[in-house]
Write a structure and sequence with these properties.
Organism: Komagataeibacter melomenusus
Distance between the termini: 35 Å
Family: Belongs to the MIP/aquaporin (TC 1.A.8) family.
Order of helices and strands: HHHHHHHHHHHH
Membrane topology: Multi-pass membrane protein
Largest sheet: none
Radius of gyration: 20 Å
Keywords: Membrane, Transmembrane, Transmembrane helix, Transport
Shape: globular
Number of helices: 12
Subcellular location: Membrane
Length: about 300
Amino acid sequence: MTAPRQTGSPPQEDRPLAGAPHPDHPLHWKLYACEMVATTVLMLCGIVSVTVLTTPYTPIGRALAPHPLAQTALCGLFFGLSGTVAAFTPFGRVSGAHVSPSVSLAFSLAGRLGMIDLCGYITAQMVGACLATVLLAGLGHVLPAWGQMAQASAYAATIPFPHVSVLWPLATELVLTVLLVLMICALAAHPTLKWLTPWAGGLFFLACNPISAWLSGNSSNLARSFGPALVAGQWQSFWIYALGPFMGAALAIAIIRSRLLGRIEVEEARVVNFGHHGRIPSLFHPGRHAKAREQDTL
């Protein structure tokens, strides 16, 4: 005799980046570790870029000094493209390359990242940002010329403009994050334009930096501000880099839910490497699971 065929719902999958982790696996250390490394890459590339572009110790910095708007725009472009570099590392392709607590919070409020994983991502981002800045500071002891340049740029620290009310830098961080999150979510939800998502940050900050960077430094990213502040000791009104971006992320998701901009439905908490339906891809073959899933649906 053959055993009766079992009926019922299929076993629950672990899909943390779709906001549906398996109840027996609430922690996803692989995602957190990859996000930490991706954020480290962001900060390494970003701090080096800003240092080269702004200090008087480099030919580029000296050439750009008489042109502050161009200098600020290029800082935004290259720091934004540092996020692109981080996204396309194997680590960023696994974690989805949020590399920012405000982006992770937005995905969580949109129902695509659970609270436990949100805490894991934010912790990983903070650690990654600090690790990168400390590594660059340590490099200054080995290469004194680099140390002089990095200190002159304050490790790309974001500092509110001191001659206006702190509410202006706070508002700048809030509005900037609203626009950034709306752009990311709109691109990530678009079936044909989602491939642009990891590239958009550079163009976004290229356009925004000349307008508002003088007010707050245009961070929109608590981790990005925390690492340099820790090493450079720049804590002036630092609270705006937590409150402003987090409020901006929440407001952006509220706008999306209101349908003021039409229907925007983000499927996965990813800025890169879509198509895994919230599953964790392989580190060394990050597209394998997505391709296998596509073949299963044919």
